[in-house]
Design goal:
With about 140 residues, this protein is mostly helical. The protein has one domain: MFS general substrate transporter like domains (Growth Hormone, Chain: A). It has 5 helices and no strands.
Length: about 140
């Protein structure tokens, strides 16, 4: 978690500045692909360096995807409904933060770490495919 925080502190603003003009159809699947690769790679990571490399991958995904997705939601919603759209978008994070630990610990307990991380990679891959269909 420290590596994630340090990377965000050092690189979030430069990355957001660099990607601010990228098309959503490029930005969103790229961020999701980095995050997906990082989570799926956890299934094979052995040792501190390998785990750190997975953290770097998913952190870059975070830094690319999250600012871009919130901007996309704000820019594509009707002005009269922008607050509701952003509220729904933010609420989805709260819902995910509630469900993911419950579901993740169940998968980990019943099927093991490899299944958990490969499952995250599978779900992430679906996200990459769906986000690659995003248009302006």
């Amino acid at each position: 978690m420290t590596l994630n925080t340090v990377l965000i502190l050092l690189l979030e603003v430069p990355i957001s500045t660099k990607t601010a003009t990228w098309r959503p159809s490029r930005l969103l699947p790229l961020g999701a692909a980095f995050a997906t690769a990082g989570y799926a790679a956890m299934a094979f990571a052995e040792g501190a360096l390998a785990i750190a490399a997975t953290v770097v991958l998913w952190t870059f995904g975070e830094m690319i995807l999250f600012p871009g997705s919130s901007t996309y939601v704000a820019e594509t919603s009707a002005p009269a409904h922008r607050g509701a759209a952003m509220g729904l978008y933010t609420m989805s994070f709260g819902l995910a933060a509630t469900i993911a630990p419950l579901l993740g610990t169940q998968v980990l307990d019943r099927f093991g770490a490899t299944a958990l991380w490969l499952g995250a990679g599978g779900v992430g891959s679906v996200s990459v495919l769906l986000l690659s269909r995003v248009r302006r």
